[in-house]
Specification:
heterotetramer, A mainly alpha, B mainly alpha, C mainly alpha, D mainly alpha, A: mainly alpha, 19 helices, 0% strand, C: mainly alpha, 70% helix, 1% strand
């Protein structure tokens, strides 16, 4: 019960409290404490010091442990920097947005934790939808036309998509017809146990619907658009939150149903679908990297790319699967740094257009160098973690039954790297322009967070803790993958 | 081996010194001292290990802990020695180089940090034994080099040039991934020391060779892949461009040699391929160089040339290995290895020299120089030594390695009868041709930069002690290797016997009559001195005076009447203008009162300007024209869901 | 190597150094005779050299230490090259495996400094000469390798002495090969020593000259060194040419010497004849001329390799 | 009984396909809400339990009372033009709808051979989903999009009853609440849009592009 209260109830209560008290600062303190507790607790659970047994629709397994840790980590850092972010001057209309900021954050934490820990598809669906609802107003933080449009599109697209996911879930119940699962509850642990007996036709159908429906949330092409719009127009902490943890949550749903398909005859089909989805999103990222001239959109596409790589890895299976699991961690860490620093740049230059930005390294050295480093990290340059995970994924591809995928992937990644680099370096370098000559930037908490995260990224990559490896091994065992 | 690791730590500590000293001068001094200390200790350790040939292959004790990350075999140690040997004077120069910027009040912190990282990672690359560890060091090396290049971030060409380099190394590392994956799959071990198990020529064998030659060849800058050198070298700060073309491109050579260790014997056609590629790189590298006016890009093209010469040596070695002939392999690889060392030395010398000139005159265009000999006599002498050495002219080190390669040709012709003499002769002629072009090129830059009258008046031309020191060390090395090559030959021989030639120590390298050579060279010097004395006495007797140059009766010659670099090289460039992309722009009208005319000549790199850029441009235009998925309307978003679901359902339907 | 061979070497070196001006005198004399003049005496070159030594040395204002050291380096390099050449069956002073490379590169060293010294003056005339010298040298070196070098590659010997004495006349195609080789060596000699039709040492129109124009601004001892080394260089090539015919003397010194002298005489006549009947080429045609020589070399080689 | 209700449901969909007025959409939504409520009441004919009333009650409140009112309120406040703005002719739209109906009914009847499902509710639910999507795709007005989304939701609900999944009450209610909040947020967003942009159709949402 303790874990239930800490992980799920307290955030809810905190949300209510944040609604009641008006002062932003105290809201910040409360949410920070909640976040810290959450992080601590999920860490304890992760390293196995504490065996949780959650009541009714909730339970934990190695997968949800991992994702929970990712979530609470991302959440903690986002909350940590949020206050300094809120202090920044915004338009008068945007002032009112601040009132609900922490309320919604806490609600988000509540919903997302529920989604990750839920053992029941219905529960998962409700919680996932709730996360969308909590994020949508946060996207509208700036109260300007772009953010409004982004919110509308995100809300609408994701709601429709998730409705499809619901259909998928219903199909799952259908697939249970005529088996011992008939009329049972949708506890996926049950489904995993006797998946082999399920009706393959409905199983395939439900996989398709759930995958496509949740793709709108994950940002798998061609359903990526709403996600990209939202991530590129949300305030950067929220953008970090979305591409760091929200997409992962949606991915969880897909992986659940995939896990059910694992022992069945439709396994290969599911893999194929995942591979198609991953390649499609890589291609989309590849195409748009040529055209984008808005750096937040660029980052959004980069997270489309990386979720694509993860999906691809899961679809390839084998070593690539483990690589994909590592990739989720590194990606979440890395995306945070990228979005935080991008947020600094935005608040300094007041534009999201690349052409309006130059000489960042000269004007704001801390942000500039961190941004540069995080770019290197995201493009898989050692010693940053993503290098190692991509190495695993590539190896998995090369020795899978479809090695040609590796060729395509490398080609796409290379051009993505070239274009992303061209755009970002154009921002980073260049001479100082007179209008931008201001005081040197001071060392803020954002920089601190970014540095810590980068260090984490390197440390996890190089040390690759045994506990983490065990966890990922057991995940892949759950998915019937022998390493 | 601990000493080596301690030395590396010492070098790393320089980073801390660079960062934490607030006062710029202090910080730079401190970090340079630490670097030097580290390098020198490391060099001594490595050299002793190499000479005493205690090559511990596995279980390196690192601070007492045994690990298999590292491997100190002869090849690795040899390259390690080269790196440290070249790095020492470069670091000395770096100090005075950065002093200029510090005086200008520019922050040099980043430069210090990246230089140290670059040094350490490069040293780790050549002793790494674990493939993943190698890749990590490799990437860190490339990235730090990239970051170091971007010292003057403001300039556009700096950004593009360095970006070329970054992209190149990204491609390289992608290829290396596959290379090592395949090797790992074959030997299921990540250790270099286990890799050379597999042999025999299957398809995989060829694939592996192709991968490694393309990847490492790209790094080394062989001809089709040379495009990045003339982009990256000129824009990098001198210290980095010296290190880049002195050392980093040699890591490519290192990789190729390692590959040969893994997979040997090499098939013969491969030997011919490498030989041909090397020859093309050598000839066109130097020919492109002849067409340049920017001193640094000229030197960059000369790196292509010298890499080509090394490639020729490697090619000979491959052929030898295909025929299991020890002498050929010894001479081929020996020439390649020694030339690697030599080129590292004199190319760094020349780059440092060009850096000194750039610091003083503020331009890299040699057309605007001239008459510098009257300002810095000794500097010119040092630079001249480098130039003679790089043109492979006796009595300096360049000649020694080319001599070995020529001997390789001869031996190949002798060992393998029938049509080989012809082919070898043609290769020899090619090498001679390269030599001729190199002479033309270096007479050009030396005479245009240093001799005659100054074309643009020289404000100040000062050379600090440190610059003289580092140049002096380099020049000394050139001279020593030239006049007394025996010990170096011995070391190279040892490396070959340890790493390349399985059979008993064959000494076709030592057979060459080195004593006689050095005697001859010494006679040359002695003779010059004797004649000098005689000449002095004669001149004392019959007098000597200075007067204006004989202009065929025409008084008032002025500097602008001198031969320029373009006019000097024009005749040669005309011959292969199509390849060089050599084109001239003349503006002059011939009426009675001629107005101000102008002339300029340029050369566009074939691969870069004619292939890469247009292809990329048209490709991106093509992509930009794709409207696929680029809708802004929510209704399309929704429609996509429906469409994709139908597609997936169809797949599902067709599945069973 | 034992004492006698050293003695032989020294003697032949001294011979080369001593006779080289005489050869030039010979050529000039014959030229004069062909053109119906009496001409200067055979020893004229010696007189000129003597005279040059006694002259005052004048250096241009813009010149540097380069033009001071170059004459000496030039001279030494040529002498070293000369020391590798066999006269008859006498063992040359310097002879080791691969000295053919050293030979070529010693001449290269000489050229390098020659060109630098020319550019050192900073006058456009010398520049012109230097540029031409550098350009033509690029094409001259391959010819050397296609002739002497080709024999080296075929015979497997890499020392000039052995190369020449490996020539056997029992094989007809080889004889043909040798003869054609000698032709292209002649062309090489003409080029390297800047005689007609590549260069005209006698006109004093700077625009048309290569070698002469490079040493315009030298006088006295410097000019002496230049001239002398150019004489030696010419003689070196003559010896290269002559050595082709040693095999006719079946291992006998005297016969060898006789052949040597005869060939020298014939060559001087040939040079004189060429210089009287032909006129200088246009500068831009010279590369073609050299390429033609190279082509001969290649063709010759191909014929030989495939008729063996 | 269930089938009759489903047929009615389908008829309402056809009506949606032809009607040009926004108000009609709201009416249809309300009608469908009532249908669904009745559908949930059906089991009570056998045995009645107070606990089971909660779900139909909430459904009735949300889908029949609150949401339609809310939408009407928005329409009044923003005085949106009363006609929907179709992008294709109603006739073609109707054809499309009929076509999809045929496909769906055929498919579901084929599927019902393998597994036991009540074909008619299943098919009509699915048809509702498709029609909802079509409405969103082929209409310009944002408010109509919301209606389309709601039709889609109703379809899913009907569908859910068809596949006889008895989800636990609180999850069902959670679903309903989610839907409600979505609509609520959409309403707020519409208000904002009306205040920031002029007009209410998607053509104004073209700002975000690459």
């Amino acid at each position: 019960m303790l874990e239930f209260s800490v992980l799920i109830l307290i955030p809810l209560i905190a949300a209510v409290v944040c609604y009641l008290i008006k002062s932003i600062r105290s809201q910040y303190v409360i949410s920070l404490i909640v976040g810290a507790f959450h992080l601590l607790f999920s860490f304890i659970i992760f390293i196995g010091l504490y065996k949780p047994n959650l009541p009714f629709f909730f339970s934990t397994d190695s997968l949800s442990k991992l994702f929970l840790l990712i979530l609470s980590n991302v959440y903690f850092w986002v909350v940590l920097i949020s206050f300094s972010y809120l202090k920044r001057p915004v338009t008068l209309k945007a002032q009112e947005g601040k009132k609900y900021y922490f309320l919604l954050l806490n609600f988000y934490l509540f919903a997302n934790t529920a989604a990750i820990l839920s053992n029941h598809f219905g529960m998962y669906w409700v919680a996932a939808e709730a996360t969308t609802l909590s994020v949508a107003p946060l996207i509208y933080y700036y109260r300007n036309e772009e953010s409004l449009e982004a919110m509308w599109k995100y809300l609408f697209l994701v709601s429709v998509g998730i409705a499809f996911a619901f259909i998928g879930i219903l199909f799952l119940t259908l697939s249970a017809n005529g088996t011992i699962m008939e009329g049972q509850q949708l506890f996926f642990s049950e489904f995993v146990k006797n998946a082999a007996k399920l009706n393959p036709v409905w199983l395939k159908a439900s996989f398709i619907f759930i995958f496509v429906g949740l793709s709108t949330k994950i940002g798998i092409a061609p359903m990526h658009s709403g996600d990209v719009d939202a991530t590129s127009n949300a305030p950067s902490p929220i953008a970090a939150l979305m591409s760091g943890s929200l997409r992962i949550t949606a991915l969880l749903g897909v992986m659940r149903i995939f896990q059910i398909l694992t022992p069945t005859s439709s396994y290969e089909f599911a893999k194929l679908i995942l591979i198609i989805g991953g390649l499609l999103s890589l291609i989309v990222a590849f195409i748009f990297m040529f055209k984008v001239n808005n750096y937040k959109r660029l980052l959004a596409y980069s997270s489309v790319e990386h979720l694509g790589i993860i999906t691809l890895g899961i679809g390839i299976g084998g070593l690539a699967f483990a690589g994909a699991m590592f990739h989720t961690i590194y990606n979440s860490l890395n995306k945070m740094v990228l979005f935080f620093t991008a947020g600094n740049i935005h608040s300094r230059f007041k534009t999201r257009e690349v052409n309006g930005v130059s000489a960042v390294i000269n004007l704001m050295p801390w942000t500039g160098w961190l941004f540069l480093l995080s770019f290197f990290a995201i493009s898989a340059i050692p010693p940053f973690g993503i290098f190692f995970s991509e190495l695993m994924i590539f190896r998995g591809m090369l020795f899978s039954d479809k090695p040609w995928i590796l060729a395509i992937t490398m080609f796409l990644l290379l051009f993505i790297f070239i274009n992303m680099g061209r755009t970002l370096f154009q921002m980073l370098y260049g001479e100082k322009e007179e209008k931008n000559i201001q005081e040197k930037e001071s060392f803020e908490i954002i920089h601190f967070a970014a540095i810590v995260l980068l260090i984490l990224l390197i440390a996890i990559g190089i040390i690759s803790p045994g506990i983490l490896q065990e966890n990922i091994l057991s995940i892949s065992k759950d998915f019937g993958i022998r390493l | 081996m601990d000493t080596l690791f301690y030395s590396l730590l010492l070098q790393l500590s320089s980073i801390a010194a660079g960062i934490f000293f607030t006062e710029k001068k202090k910080s730079s001094a401190a970090s340079h001292i630490l670097l030097l200390a580290g390098l020198i200790t490391g060099f001594i350790a490595a050299l002793t290990a190499l000479i005493n040939s205690d090559f511990t292959l596995k279980d390196i004790q690192m601070f007492g802990i045994s690990n298999n990350l590292f491997r100190f075999d002869a090849l690795g140690l040899y390259f390690l020695c080269i790196i440290q040997l070249v790095a020492i004077p470069t670091t000395i120069y770096s100090y005075s180089y950065l002093k200029h910027y510090i005086e200008k009040g520019k922050s040099v912190r980043s430069n210090l940090v990246f230089y140290a990282v670059l040094l350490v990672s490069t040293q780790l690359v050549v002793v790494a034994n674990h493939a993943i560890f190698f890749l990590v060091c490799w990437e860190v090396m490339s990235t730090s080099a990239y970051l170091g290049m971007n010292f003057e971030k403001g300039k556009k060409e700096v950004q593009t040039g360095s970006f070329y380099y970054l992209v190149m190394s990204h491609v390289v590392v992608f290829l290396l991934y596959i290379f090592f994956f395949l090797l790992h799959n074959q030997t299921n071990s990540w250790l270099f020391s286990d890799f050379h198990l597999l042999s025999g020529t299957g398809d995989l064998f060829i694939v592996l060779y192709a991968l490694s030659l393309i990847a490492f060849g790209m790094k080394a800058g062989f001809m089709p892949f040379h495009f990045w050198l003339p982009r990256a070298h000129p824009i990098a700060p001198t210290v980095f461009s010296a290190f880049l073309s002195g050392i980093i491109i040699k890591t490519g050579i290192y990789g190729i040699l390692r590959t040969f260790q893994f997979l040997n014997p090499a098939p013969e056609w491969l030997g011919w391929l490498v030989l041909a590629v090397g020859m093309i790189s050598a000839v066109y590298g130097v020919w492109y160089a002849l067409a340049q006016h920017d001193i640094k890009s000229l030197l960059a093209y000369h790196s292509v040339e010298n890499i080509g010469i090394i490639g020729i040596g490697i090619g000979i070695g491959f052929i030898g290995s295909a025929y299991h002939s020890i002498p050929i392999q010894i001479l081929g690889f020996g020439g390649a290895l020694l030339h690697t060392l030599n080129h590292a030395i004199f190319k760094s010398l020349l780059f440092v020299g060009s850096g000194v000139i750039y610091q003083n005159l503020g331009t890299r265009n040699i057309e605007q120089m001239g008459g510098l000999v009257h300002y810095g006599k000794y500097f010119v002498v040092l630079f001249l030594i480098g130039s003679i050495a790089i043109s492979g002219i006796p009595p300096f080190n360049g000649f020694i390695s080319e001599f070995i390669i020529y001997n390789g040709f001869f031996t190949t012709a002798k060992e393998l009868e029938n049509y080989y003499p012809l082919l070898m002769l043609i290769s020899a002629v090619g090498l001679a041709f390269v030599g001729g072009l190199a002479v033309a090129c270096f007479t050009k830059i030396n005479s245009i930069m240093f001799l005659g009258k100054e074309r643009k008046e020289v404000k100040h031309f000062k050379i600090s002690f440190y610059e003289y020191l580092s140049l002096g060390i380099f020049a000394l090395l050139c001279i020593v290797i030239g006049f007394y090559p025996q010990p170096f030959i011995g070391v190279v021989n040892k490396v070959l016997i340890d790493g390349f030639v399985p059979a008993a120590p064959s000494s076709s390298l030592l057979n060459i009559n080195w004593q006689l050579l050095s005697i001859i060279f010494i006679t040359v010097i002695a003779g010059i001195i004797l004649i000098y004395l005689w000449k002095k006495s004669i001149q004392k007797k019959y007098g000597r005076r200075i007067s204006t140059a004989w202009g065929c009766g025409y008084e008032g010659l002025n500097p602008r009447m001198q031969y320029t670099a373009s006019s000097y090289a024009d005749e040669l460039n005309e011959i292969s203008k199509s390849v060089l992309g050599y084109h001239k722009k003349v503006i002059a009208q011939n009426d009675i009162f001629p107005a101000k005319g102008s002339f300029e000549s340029h050369s566009d790199d074939l691969v870069d300007k004619k292939i890469l850029l247009p292809v990329f441009k048209s490709f991106s235009e093509f992509i930009a024209r794709i409207k696929f998925l680029s809708y802004t309307d929510i209704r399309y978003y929704i429609a996509f869901i429906l469409i994709i679901i139908t597609i997936y359902s169809l797949i599902a339907f067709l599945w069973s | 190597m034992e004492l006698t061979s050293i003695l032989q070497g020294i003697i032949s070196l001294v011979l080369i150094l001593g006779l080289s001006p005489l050869f030039v005198g010979l050529v000039n004399k014959q030229k004069a005779i062909f053109t119906g003049r009496i001409g200067a005496s055979l020893l004229q070159p010696y007189y000129e050299l003597m005279k040059l030594i006694k002259k005052e040395t004048i250096n241009a204002t813009s010149s540097s230490f380069i033009s001071a050291v170059t004459p000496m380096i030039n001279f030494i390099a040529v002498v070293i090259a000369a020391a590798m050449l066999p006269i008859s069956f006498a063992h040359p002073l310097i002879s080791f495996e691969g000295d053919i490379i050293l030979f070529a590169y010693m001449l290269g060293l000489a050229r390098f400094f020659q060109v630098l010294a020319a550019m050192d003056i900073g006058s456009s005339f010398e520049g012109m000469g230097a540029a031409r010298e550098a350009t033509f040298a690029v094409f001259a070196e391959p010819i050397f390798f296609f002739t002497v070098g080709s024999i080296a590659f075929i015979s497997g010997f890499t020392s000039i002495y052995d190369i020449y004495h490996s020539i056997r006349l029992d094989n007809l195609s080889f004889v043909v090969f040798i003869i054609v080789c000698s032709i292209s060596v002649f062309i090489l000699a003409v080029t390297e020593c800047s005689r007609m039709p590549v260069d005209d040492p006698n006109t004093h129109l700077e625009l048309t000259m290569i070698h002469e124009v490079m040493i315009l601004d030298n006088s006295g001892i410097d000019l002496f060194l230049y001239q002398y080394s150019s004489y030696i260089k010419l003689f070196i090539y003559v010896i290269l040419e002559a050595s082709f015919f040693y095999p006719f003397a079946v291992q006998s010194y005297t016969l060898g010497i006789i052949i040597f002298l005869v060939v020298i005489f014939i060559l001087s006549a040939a040079l004189a004849a060429v210089e009287t009947i032909t006129s200088r080429f246009k500068m831009k045609n010279i590369p073609h001329y050299l390429l033609f020589a190279t082509a001969i070399g290649i063709l010759n080689l191909l014929i030989y390799t495939f008729t063996r | 009984m269930q089938n009759i209700l489903s047929i009615l449901f389908c008829l309402s969909l056809f009506y949606l396909a032809v009607t040009p007025r926004v108000k009609a959409y709201v009416a249809v939504l309300r009608f469908q809400g009532i249908l669904l409520t009745i559908l949930l009441m059906v089991p009570f004919v056998e045995q009645f339990s107070v606990f089971a009333v909660i779900l139909p009650a909430t459904l009735f409140i949300i889908k029949v009372i609150i949401i339609p009112r809310y939408i009407n309120k928005i329409i009044l406040e923003l005085d949106i033009k009363r006609t929907i703005e179709p992008t294709i002719q109603q006739f073609n739209f109707l054809l499309l709808v009929i076509f999809s109906f045929i496909v769906i009914f055929l498919a579901s009847s084929i599927l019902s051979l393998t597994t036991n499902i009540e074909t008619i509710p299943f098919a009509s639910g699915f048809a509702a989903v498709t029609v909802g999507i079509f409405i969103i795709i082929f209409r310009k007005k944002l408010i109509v999009h919301v209606c389309g989304f709601l039709v889609l939701e109703n379809g899913i609900f009907l569908f859910g009853t068809a596949v006889a999944s008895d989800l636990p009450i609180m999850i069902e209610i959670g679903v309903l609440l989610d839907v409600f909040v979505v609509v609520f947020l959409m309403g707020i967003a519409l208000n904002r849009i009306s205040s920031t942009f002029e007009g209410f159709d998607v053509t104004i949402l073209r700002r975000l592009k690459d």
